[in-house]
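pinned: reference chain
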Amino acid sequence: MRTSRRDFTAKLFVAAGIAASGVHRRLAANPLSDLPERVPGSITLKNDQEAFKISIFSKHLQWLDYKGMTKILSEIGFDGTDLTVRPGGHVLPERVEEDLPKAAEALAREGKKIYMLTTAIDNADDPLTGRILKTASSLGIKHYRMGWGHYDDTRSVKENISMMQLKLAKLALLNEKYSISGEYQNHSGAASQGIYFGGALWDIAEVLKQIDSPWLGSQYDIYHATVEGANTWPVGFKLISPFIRTIDIKDFKWIERDGKTRSEAVPLGEGMVDFRRFFRLLKEANLQIPISLHYEYPLGGVENGSSGLTIDRNQVISAMKKDLVTLKTYLKDAGLS
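pinned: its structure tokens
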């Protein structure tokens, strides 16, 4: 670790003072001017056994139990899964001690593993948070995606940043305790709670630099980065790249409906995302990390995490195989496999 626990704890208390005052003086003049520079990939928890291992986001297999999920992902050709451990997920948070080991065991029987979790974790003080992280760590799981934050319109941008810094600093300490990397996904657009924190990338990159923990990072989503910065996403990528621990892969195109233009997910390679450039940049940044492949386009209900299918399962499997082959082609062409 580049930062000692003592120094990191001191930073947490500094962050707490910032949140209490509602003003971050160093950010007032220039939000990026005094942040430390890093060599890309310098604090990534590297593991050659995880490099470009491809998981399926298990949201899309929630019509199957653990055994059925494992058989399908093995048939399609995935290395493992990005397992949902959240309300409505494959594992319910309150049952994590009982059910997460069962899922891991089902995968292990087929030579597969859980490379990451997708959770709703956003509070280090929630008793469920510690239970999830402790159980995941005991099973050798190295990564989890946390829940999103949203901008509070009653506060300034700088105050929002300070509040997020405090929240994530506390989570980083808990992650360190259980030796698991917590990762924040950049998400485009706005939800009912407000605009997503991190959608612009510079804000979450700034928070991660300030906290300076190898146990806290980014789950970079090229779909959402492209939506928010169609032409400028490579700049955001270079800014966040020192903190990227895992990546999400999916594609989209712009559609007009009811007089409004919005993004709509499509099969891999049929949309707007410049995957060839993205994977070249990944290679240049020397990032060797696991991948979560998503299927967010209409596919018989699996795009929404449905517990049942409205189309033939063979049609679902065929579409999933096609996207996986496309992804592997991109990786091969970029010299990453």
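why pinned: Residues 15-44 have pLDDT under 50 and may be disordered. The radius of gyration is 19 Å.
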